[in-house]
Amino acid sequence: MSAIKIQAATMMLGGQMQEAPVKVLTTGNRIKRMIFVASLYFKMVDIKNPTRDHLVMVNQKFGLAHGGNALLFPAAISGMIWDKVTLVDIFKEYASGKQSAEECIDKVFEQAPKWVKYDAGTLIRQDIKKVFDTVLAG
Q1: 94 within 8 A of 12, measured Cβ to Cβ
Q2: Residue 31: is it exposed, middle or buried by C-beta count within 10 angstroms (0-12/13-18/19+)?
């Protein structure tokens, strides 16, 4: 079974039935996504012990778990996951525009540990961009 199943879902649009592709992450990959996104975010903002409000905000922003408390573990281990990735430098390049957003996102993707990657790249790159943009927005 592949990490991501692509299924056809029938959607009702304007009274007509149409087929639409839907990407569905397996349970294991949903957990990897939660760890990847939450740990990346909390590493970027340098928070190891987030408040309940912060957990809820991150969970709502990224849709990671049924409750914010699930993000406590990724926050706690964020340093271990991202210790070999030059996030500060990459983010400075992203924020300043010295390198294209795509190049910066690719650097994070390439340097991220393999064990926490939850798809071949498309979804992960979208999530990295969303994390970067969320951190920029403050």
Answers
A1: no
A2: middle
Closest CA to 131 of 77, 31, 64, 81: 64
* β partners of residue 8: 21
| pLDDT tens-digit map of 24-64 | 567 888 999 999 999 999 999 999 899 999 999 999 999 99
With cut-offs at 50, 70 and 90, classify the pLDDT of residue 115.
very high
**How many Cα atoms occupy the beta-carbon half-sphere of 38 within 13 Å?**
30
DSSP of 18-69:
EEEEEEEE-HHHHHHHHHHHHHHHHHHTT-SS--HHHHHHHHHHHT-SSSGG
